[in-house]
Amino acid sequence: MAKLKTETEIQILREGGKRLARVLRRAGAEVKPGVDTKAINELVLNFIAEEGGEPSLVGYQPTFAQRPYPAAVCVSVNDEVVHGIPTENSRVLKEGDIVGLDIVMTYKGLMVDTAATFPVGKIDADAQKLIDATREALREGVKAAHVGKRTGDIAHAIESVAIKYSLSPVYELGGHGVGHHVHEEPMVPNVGDPGTGPRLEEGMVIALEPIFNEGAPEVELERDGYTYRTADGKRSAHFEHTIVITKKGPEILTVE
């Protein structure tokens, strides 16, 4: 069962979300040809500190992992789906790459989570379609997040965008509650049927994160224990916002 957030907590998350949005924007501006992914991690650490936050991912160990995560940001390039480790698998970005940045920040004891996929210089039309469609899926997922609806309604909205653009949503990965911990209930899949899953309640804070692949939906976990890659080697894109469910509708917290 999701732990509903109080109005005081939501206000802290709202401020933290604005600050994290600035961190992501500034980090995304550094995604350029010739930039080393390890350098992006150092920048994110500095940006988080400047916003008065703490890097939630450093030392965090999710249930699927055998060790704590060693970086402040997940940097996933091209066929890397999520959780790429910039401090261990450092690489120099090149023209035409696409790069997902996923950051969780703790602000005044509460966590917010956001992600986006950025082009490196000029990218091809298929890569742009992948990015644009995944971003659109996030918008549609947010629109479906109303009091009384269910997580399946969000999942269906996201999946429908994937179908529209002949892309594959990743089945194994999805959104989740957030706030007191990096991952909380409920889980929010990117594939599902309307009217199914946990019911959305006022005060619920969740991170929605559509993840689309160009090719097949299957993914494989790398030997580092964190990085997921597409099984067929085709590219993947990822966008994420933290939102709060209110009587008036969904409110995106991770915006400036």
What can you tell me about this protein's structure?
This protein has 4 helices and 15 strands. It has about 260 residues and is an alpha+beta fold. It has a single domain, classed as Creatine Amidinohydrolase. The strands form 4 sheets. The chain has a 5-stranded antiparallel β-sheet with strand order 8-7-9-14-15. Helix 3 packs antiparallel against helix 4 (about 150-165). The longest helix has 22 residues, at about 5-30. It starts with 6 loop residues before the first helix and ends with a strand. The model has no long low-confidence stretch (mean pLDDT about 95).
Strand order of the largest sheet: 8-7-9-14-15
Helix- and strand-based class?
alpha+beta
Q: Which architecture name does CATH use?
A: Alpha-Beta Complex
CATH class: Alpha Beta
Terminal Cα span: 30 Å
Q: Counting H and I runs of at least 4 residues, what is the number of helices?
A: 4
The residue fraction in helices comes out at 25-40%
User: What is the count of β-strands?
Assistant: 15
SSE pattern: HHEEEEEHHEEEEEEEEEE
Average pLDDT for all residues: 97
Radius of gyration: 17 Å
What is the CATH topology? Answer: Creatine Amidinohydrolase
